[in-house]
UniProtKB/TrEMBL annotation:
This is Translation initiation factor eIF2B subunit delta. The keyword Protein biosynthesis applies. The keyword Protein biosynthesis applies. It is found in: Cytoplasm, Cytosol. Residues 37-51 have a biased composition (Basic and acidic residues). Residues 1-120 are annotated as: Disordered.
Length: 494
């Protein structure tokens, strides 16, 4: 019998205190790391303590963000790692490690929900509305009054360009054709006044000279697809001067001035005339034509169709229904132009369109751009008009010049759009003010609303190609799916 002082019983006692648990056979050749378990657990515990200290220090440094619960990614990952280790190795972790794993979201049952801070409060309806607006529309450009004083002090922006930017931002020049023509005419005068510095080449220095002016106009209001295509064409014409090295500076300047004049004549003025000649053939005697807002090319189509019809038969004619919406109310000027020419017109707002469409024969729409997938990018409300027209089986014809064709694909009206002015949204002729007093309704900073009212005006929307029957261009009637073909054939121009 061994004596009580023999070391053998102590070894047996040690084995009794720490029995080896039955472990499943490791798969894929894994070997249980029994000897390194203690070191690995200490490392995990150290990571968890460091992550908890960093999280506590971040909360104390930003007390304003304490109302919003946050969970560190590293902390959560460490907690999950600690929880998986605990589940795999049974009860080998000590009590302190289990407590740390529970704090960081670990444990056998998965990550736990973080506790809310003491000063946490549920967001109100106003804050949720503001968050949603910032989330979906904060990236969109909005129209503001440009800082003309700073632009003049820089000396890099021509006064004519500053005047053009003010007209564009105020809404005086609103249509795509009007803005593009005004921009190209302004650049023509800038090039006329331009003097190439000594030791410089015109075709290299002129794009650098025009760059701050283009950027300033973009800050006043986005140039759109048509304006962007026109500027790219102008830069390509300037680069083409590098291939003609035998010309003097005056000859190069005259070449650019003549090229800009030809671009405006062929791509906009002559294109509108050809579109009017094609589209007016679709209007017959006694027809009822529906149009939305105001488009310069649609206005020309209707006026020329009326003049030709009256010239052929004084008793013939057709009716026009002008559909309008707030806050721009562009249809009023369109209605005035048509009425003064003698056309029989009806003026309605967008909610009444469904009651008028059963008696309509044709819907004519303008557009700011036509994307490569055939989607029409036009004034907000155009998509609703096209959708209702298709429901009532009324053909929809979009009148768009080819210089407005874009290579992008736009799936919605949120990613690329503009935020317009909201003053006209709350100005109702019936005298209702949505519960606002006079001081609040006249405050431009709040957009004419109370603290719980957020006016929102999206300038454009996207009409899917399935709602458009045909597109009338200067090259004739084409389906919306033919836009990539036109872009490929006219890649040197568009």
């Amino acid at each position: 019998m061994p004596s009580p002082t023999d070391p053998e019983p102590s070894t047996a006692s040690s084995d009794t205190k720490q029995p080896k648990p039955a472990k499943p056979q490791p798969a894929n050749g894994e070997k249980a790391n029994v000897g390194g378990e203690k070191g690995k657990s200490a490392k995990d515990l150290k990571k968890e303590k460091r992550a908890a200290a960093v999280a506590a220090r971040a909360v104390s440094d930003n007390p304003a963000d304490s109302g919003r619960p946050s969970l560190s990614t590293q902390n959560s990952a460490d907690g999950r790692q600690g929880g998986s280790n605990q589940s795999q190795h049974g009860h080998s972790h000590n009590t302190n490690n289990n407590a740390a794993g529970s704090t960081t979201g670990g444990g056998g049952a998965g990550p736990s929900i973080p506790k809310r801070p003491v000063h946490f409060s549920e967001p109100s309806a106003l804050s949720l509305s503001t968050i949603q607006q910032n989330l979906f529309f904060s990236h969109l450009p909005h129209q503001e009054t440009p800082d003309t004083a700073t632009a003049l002090r820089t000396g890099k922006i021509h006064p004519l360009i500053i005047r053009l930017g003010v007209l564009m931002s105020s809404g005086t020049l609103r249509g795509a054709n009007a803005r593009t023509m005004g921009m190209m005419a302004a650049f023509r005068e800038v090039i006329r006044d331009y003097e190439c510095p000594d030791q410089a080449v015109l075709w290299k220095d002129l794009p650098i000279y025009l760059s701050p002016m283009i950027a300033w106009l973009e800050g006043c209001r986005p140039k759109g697809v048509g304006g962007g295509n026109a500027i790219r064409w102008l830069k390509s014409e300037i680069n083409r001067l590098g291939e003609q090295g035998d010309r003097s500076e005056a000859e190069q300047r005259d070449y650019l001035l003549e090229a800009i004049g030809l671009y405006l004549r062929d791509r906009i003025e002559f294109a509108d005339k050809v579109i009017a000649d094609h589209a007016k053939e679709k209007i017959k005697n006694g027809d009822t034509v529906v149009t939305y807002a105001r488009s310069s090319v649609v206005e020309r189509v209707l006026l020329e169709a009326w003049r030709d019809m009256k010239a052929a038969d004084p008793e013939a004619g057709f009716k026009v229904i002008v559909v309008d919406s707030r806050p721009l109310l562009e249809g009023r000027q369109f209605l005035e132009a048509l009425s003064s020419a003698g056309l029989s017109c009806t003026y309605i707002f967008l909610p009444l369109l469904s009651s008028i469409l059963p008696q309509a024969d044709l819907v004519l729409l303008g557009g700011s751009a036509l994307h490569s997938d055939g989607a029409l990018y036009s004034r907000s409300g155009t998509a609703l008009v096209a959708m209702l027209a298709k429901e009532h089986r009324v053909p929809v014809v979009a009148c768009v010049e080819t210089y407005k064709f874009g290579e992008k694909v736009v799936l919605d009206g949120v990613a690329t759009n503009e935020l317009g002015r909201t003053e006209g949204l709350l100005d109702l002729p019936c005298g209702k003010n949505f519960g606002l007093n006079k001081k609040e309704s006249d405050n431009p900073k709040t957009g004419g609303g109370r603290n719980n009212l957020t006016p929102l005006h999206l300038v454009y929307d996207v009409t899917p190609p399935s709602l458009i029957t045909a597109v009338c261009t200067e090259i004739g009637f084409i389906p919306p799916s033919s836009v990539p073909t036109v872009l490929g054939k006219a890649s040197n121009v568009v």
